[in-house]
Amino acid sequence: MSTALESPAPARSRKARRSAGNTAPTAPTGPRENPFARSGAMLVMGVFTLYFLVPIWWLLVAASKSSSQFTSTNPLWFADMSIVQNIGDLVAYRDGVYFRWLLNSVFYAGAGALLATVIAGMCGYALAKYRFPGREVIFNVVLGGVLVPATALALPLFLIFSQVNLTNTYWAVFLPSLVSPFGVYLARIYAAASVPDELIEAARLDGAGEVRTFFTVAVRLMFPALVTVFLFQFVAIWNNFFLPLIMLRDEALFPVTLGLYSWNSQVNQIPELRGYVLIGALLSIIPLIITFLLLQRFWRNGLGTGSVK
Amino acid sequence: MSAPAIVSTAPVARAGAAAKKTGVKHRRAILTFVLPFGTLFALFYLVPIGYAIQRSLLVIERDGTFGQAREVFGGLSQYVLVFQNGPFWRSIARVLTFGAVQVPVMLGLALLFALLLDSPLLRGKKFFRLAFFVPYAVPGVIAAIMWGFLYSPKLSPFSAVTENVDFMSADLVLWSIANVVTWVYVGYNMLIIYSSLLAIPTELYEAARLDGAGQVRIAWSIKIPLIMPAIVLTAIFSIIGTLQLLAEPQVFRSFSSAVTSTFTPNLTVYSTSSIPNFNLAAAFSVVLALATFVLSFTFLKFTARKEAK
Asked: Does the keyword Zinc apply (chain B) (predicted)?
């Protein structure tokens, strides 16, 4: 079974055992599965595969057509391939403002998630591995923070930032996204389970400082959890809509979601924007899909940690 | 390292107080780890919330019709306005209706898919797992734009359906949005549940299989009770998400006049702040955040007690 190769160690042995049982009907593994149940299960999954993938397939097809063919040809199959032409038009349109948005998103989400992960990882590690007064209070406040969604904070943040005249700047979107209470929670649980005290003690005896021990020893052991925190923070920032919507007026600062939203809401007045929205939407989801596929080995392990607890 | 030097000067680190001694031993390291997150959390979570509460207690007063506007303390008068605001409470009722239907459907599907992935009934598990998760990489704004096209009577690939059913009508648009949200999040919830299924040791149900229990029976009596914590976690995040709906309805406003500027609570916050009436918007925000917190907290306590029984 190919999945076994990708799974964490305990799951691997378990799956190997299970699949071995299935291929050897004489082995004492109980009754074989009913063929009707098998085809029923495959049918359900097949139907929902269509549900999940057809919209994306449609977007790919739609983004590859010229605007006249978009309305006149089969929406689920390619006509003349003009995807390169469409991308070229998008680059040229208003000095490539779309790619500016894409870069903004990469900056907000990439730099923001990276810093947020380091900050949350340090805090979670300290909460797991040191005893100090106020530790439980901090953890409970952070846990409360997990339950306060980012969107509920958008207006309060706007009010605070307008107090110091920082709305409509990069900082207004970037700084709030450095805080990931869920990251602290996950990092704490994972550090408690995966970083042995003996190892920290050994590093101390070797004369390594606490901070250095964290960055050289603990980070390596916490890596799956940290990748998970990074990815989910990345997605949260990339998908964030309310905060940039309420903070930003200057188009040059927009992330790609807000940019495409603003184009989409003008489609009725400026019909040629429709083509740009389609190709822009396609280009904006490809980086995320690729990132998820490449890093899935890490985030799947880390995802389990957060929920098993 | 300088940590021991701190111990000798710190007043709490008296000989005999072992717990406190270790607490202070690495004080500098602890501060280095906790302070960055603590500062940012305070600045971008606690301070904005406090400031929003403060603003919500102010009213604008004018000397005569054209006089200078001043903000003065108005007690709870903004909250009186909130509680008298019909559209706001209708929007709360709307998202609660939405959540009562959409969250069980979404989590039911996620649970079904996770159980199928964990059963021996399926082939090609890796493919299904990825295919179902791909929509999570699509930001809510982009997903809403895509489905906006898919629902449209003329441009949709399913125009046989969309020409006869108006998915953007006042009756249906809420459920059209529910479909978009479900499409994006089923795979994400499926993976959370699936990874906690992987953590169950097979021994726990091997005996049941040998006794002839079918997959449905094993799932119902053994697996589902064991993964309840993961299901509760996904339910809480879904409830929070529902109350915070913003991006999808905001995008749908350009497709459908049925989505008003007070369609969801967050849309009400946004449109009130663009009037601009920041004090009232702040009061809306505070009430919404409180409602979210209370609802998810109650749910957490309720399910925790049920499990303990």
From this structure: no
